[in-house]
Amino acid sequence: MRKVIIASILIALSQPAWSQQKALTLDDCRGMALENNVRMKNARIGIEQARQVRREALTKYFPTVKAQGVWMTNDHGLIELDILPSILPPMYFIDNGVMGAVTATQPVLAGGQIVNSNKLAKVGYEVSGYRAEQTRDEVVLTTEEYYWQYIGLQEKLRTVDMVGQLLASTYKDVDLYVKAGVTNRNDLMKVQLKVNSVKSTRLEIENGLSIVKMLLGQYIGMGTDDFAIAPDSLSKLPAPQNYKVDHLQALPNTFSYRMLTSNVEAAKLQKRLAVGKNLPTIGVGASYSYDNWLDNDHRLGMVFASVSVPISDWWGGSHAIKKQKLSLQIAELEKEDASQLLLIRMQKCWNDLTEAYNQVALAKESIATAQENLRLNNDYYKAGTSTLTDLLDAQTSLQEARDQYTDSYTDYMVKLTLYLQATGR
């Protein structure tokens, strides 16, 4: 029984560290980045700030209420009355007292400034949402770049181990040939040099995996010891035609285009506000006051209406209006120009995507060619009709072909995300 327990403990201790970690898929990494990344937290705060600005603008519809109070005491009264200077001493009034007043004013007509200010705040809130979505796309893209870098390095590590196994087999064959006197020890040294080169490459890949995992962990909000990346076979490659859309129809769905449209709308509202500042304003209100300056209680209530005409502002206001009209023209021109650039970007992303897809297909063919070349050179070397250098070169070619396939595959997956984002998806 004791032996069984000891064996169980040894088996548990022999399990690799990553088996205790949470294995994350690409979807897991995306979700955690969107939840924990600092840029996303800042974007959510930005939306909340815009929401508060919008709520503040709504309060301008409500009456303005002001209250004030005064308490006073003096060494003699504020009013001096000297009726008979030669007979009676002067009399003083209002030497102490209190006064208070409450006034409420309701704007009735403000040249559209309140309405347009609220519309402008609404546009600002919408823009904050578009910016947050743009930040979301950027966070997703960066997360996928780190993820596919790690997956690519994992695959290259497997390729290096495969080449290492081939070299180990070749070393045994060469060692037998040296002992049999068929070849000299120089061939054995060639294999050993190649082995050392592969070991060096493996160290570089392991270091790269460590750094990329740290970057990914920082981005998704997890410590490097708390998670592992689930391996990917790099075999399922979705065809780009499955994601092709009409770029002109997709343009209004992009956040960049929506921000351009909002920019034009904001410029229109700014022009209306400039006009409204030069229009008459009308308000109605009510006031109630109390004082006891003359040792008697005095109460006064009243209602009033006010009209304000900014006559002296018209001279400068006309120029302000013209300035806002020019700003609107600039916003409209920028929208037109940027829209064309967005369409060009969509086409470029599509071209890059199809090119990357074709590169994957070529790399896959290269692997098949390199495998056949290695098989032939291995047979030729054993038959004595090929050199060891040719065999080692064939092994290197297979390694390079597999690495090229890995790079092309991961590059395609990133470019697919870029195309989807460029077309508003």
Write a concise synopsis of the structure shown.
With 425 residues, the protein is an alpha+beta fold.
| Strand numbers in spatial order across the main sheet | 2-5-7-8
Low-confidence segments, ≥5 residues, pLDDT <50? 1-19
Q: Write down how many β-strands occur, each being a DSSP E stretch of 2 or more residues.
A: 8
Strand content: 5-15%
The level of helicity is 55-70%
Structure explained in plain terms:
It is built from nine helices and eight strands. The protein has about 425 residues and is of the alpha+beta class. Helix 4 (about 115-180) packs antiparallel against helix 5 (about 185-220), helix 4 runs antiparallel to helix 7 and helix 7 (about 255-275) runs antiparallel to helix 8 (about 315-385). The chain is elongated and about 150 Å long.
Task: Spell out the key features of this protein.
425 residues; four-stranded antiparallel β-sheet; 9 helices; 14% strand; 8 strands; alpha+beta; two-stranded parallel sheet; disordered N terminus
